[in-house]
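User: structure tokens for this one?
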Amino acid sequence: MIPRIHKQGSSTRGLLNYLYGKGTRDDHVDPHLVASFDYLMAPDPGRDPSATKEDLQRLLDQPLHLLNEDQRPDRHVWHCSVRAAGTDRVLSDEEWGDIARRIVAATGIDSGGADDAGCRWAAVRHADDHIHIIATLVREDGRRPDHHRSGQRAQAEARLIETDYDLHRVTPGDGTAAKRPTSAERHKAERQGRERTAREELREAVRGASAGAASTDEFFDRLAADGLLIRKRIAPSGDLLGYKVALPDDRNKDDEPVFYAGSTLAPDLSLPRIRERWSLRAECAEALSEGGPELVQPSLPPVTHPAFARRRAVRATWQALLIIDHGDDGMAAAQIAAAGEVLDALAKTSAAHTRDDLRQAALVFQRASRSHVRAVRGHDHALRQAAHDLVHSGPVLGRGEDGATTAMVIDMAVFLAIAAANWHTKRHHSQQAAAALQAAEHLRAAYQAAAADPIAALRQRGQRLAPRICERQADLMRKALPELAGRIQAEPGWPALAATLADVRQAGHDPAALLADAARRRELGSADSISDVLVWRLRRSAHLPAAPGTAQATPARDGRRTPPSTSVTPPADRATSRSSRRP
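Assistant:
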């Protein structure tokens, strides 16, 4: 059940005309009163032929006349809508009346009988699934009601109502969510044939433009390239203070573009919040030149192609997982926020057959990236650099090494989303945890699309292996992972893993040691296919091409091609391998 406190109004009659009218789409059916401050004396112009809206207006506004005209509030009309979930049963008028009385009592509009000097109010029902409550913000004694934070108080009462009436339980929020589109914005989108409101389209566009951006100029250039109208707020000194954006075809009644400030799209899209990313990137670069702290990653070569950027993003994601698991709250919050930027960059640059699911994952993960835990910046530099690399490496092809490394990074992103969900759950961040799990489901769907071809090719290679080689790989699996061997060998992806183990041996590595290390890196119980997960971890750790049939050496940490090595773990991964082992 969702209560929503609307903007205070100045016309009681105007709101009553809407509540008892046909509705903007002729969707108001049988408008009638279900409760009021005094049900016996409140006229109901919906069902009482002798009552009028003027009668109800005069009754509600009567306390205004206790005050001199210059003391009356300009906006005295309080308006709250209360809507049930689509899956809830249809409530009776008596039940809606009780809900209305509980809401006005919880919000401070009326004391519910304990105080005879409350505000005058009425609850009108004109649909099965919701009511509207209208009240005058002057009490019977002429004083103003204490309705401070009435929205939060209404939400808290709604959670109790859901339990008492056995209704759908809405996940509690914490005030960090982005602003929802208004009903007027939704109706406007419907009239214009848009699937989403202008606010939602702009939020996604701004988030995509900010992903991986390194400067104000780059950010605004991307917004302009996406076709958005931009209005900058400049101080008298010439400093840039903020920005607003608009869709070219979203206009008001005067045919002027409707602009939205970044901060009204989402709390983390204000110009100061976005600038934090750029300033920290510059600080990290300065720290590097001065021999900065250990949290700053060593200097990396420029990205030369999309597959290289995706491999680097996998490494950054793995580091983020370690910090979420073992770092303090501020460090973990920074990683989760930066993970949203990586998902935005992936959605912006990936091939068409994965783009929709990645876009949905990025959209829902936005909620997981914001909480009241203050992020400690700097530790998230690797992820934000990965987002920058993904964007600047350009769009990928859906095949070959590009497609296979996309599957590799999405596979790791699934674990990152699950880790974020677990972190939020432990801190009772219900909405954020639910959003992270929903993002993980979209990422799984994107992974299936990205991995289909490379995994199928590896399976075919595994099925063509000589029987003695297959038996060697099975024996290796039983020795290295005795508890998981049976499940892995029963999976459809086992031949792909067998082929990868053969590639690892041919490249000069010890497959048993590398396999054990890959299994220790992260829990495998949440994986849909353990064999797939191990395939990508082995191919990355051994610097094997992600796609079978490509060159047998791939860009390593320094950008050069890596020859076959006899080391168990590549140097770039030794530190993280040791730190990931469980005691």
